[in-house]
Amino acid sequence: MSRRTKVILLLVSLALVSLTAVNLGLVWAPENPLRFRIIAPPPEKLERAFHDGTAHVSGYQVEVENTTGATIRLLRAELFGPEESDGSRVQFSNVQTASAAAEQDLVIPPHGSRRLELSMFEATYVAELARSEMTCTFLSRSKENYMNLLDYVDRKWPSLSLSMRFYPLLDGNSVPVQMSEQ
To answer: Which residue among 13, 39, 49, 66 sits deepest, i.e. has the most Cβ atoms within 10 Å of its Cβ?
Structure first.
């Protein structure tokens, strides 16, 4: 093989590796990728929940929107009320996640959205929804694949214990929710 061919192959290989590294860097841990919009149920459904004498309000949905070009897996989402004068916050609800929703519902495609169920812990929290915040934990697809690879290597060769040394941190943040009618 001539020297020119070797140089061209090396340059093409470097370009491909560079593109892969740049793409991985962009989608590894995206900043604030999720937006949450609470969709209120029809008034008659909400009325029935109040008249039944239950403090549990159901029928609300949360639309989770991915604003980035990375595929995101939602691991946990909790709705918290506004901060009280003493700095404390009341947890209003858990969004239906891994234990209750279908696995594919928790994967939000790039620039896509999913609807999940939201059940309020107390009926009195409904008035404070407009000022609430969603706290969530999520993973990008590339980070999830990396963690799966570490888990596989640990199962195959336990003496290496790679996941203990190289496991990445989970991503998460708190964002204000938006309200809308159904």
So the answer is: 66
Q: Where are the domains of the chain?
A: 30-139+171-181
CATH topology assigned to domain 30-139+171-181: Immunoglobulin-like (2.60.40)
- B/e letters for 64-81, b = 16+ CB within 10 Å, e = fewer, are bebbbebbbbbbebbbbb
Helix (H/G/I), strand (E/B), else coil: 34: strand
What pTM, to 2 d.p., does this model score?
A: 0.76
pLDDT of 122-161, one tens digit each? 666 667 777 888 888 899 988 888 888 888 988 898 888 7
Q: What is the pLDDT of residues 41-60, one digit of tens each?
A: 776 666 455 545 545 666 77
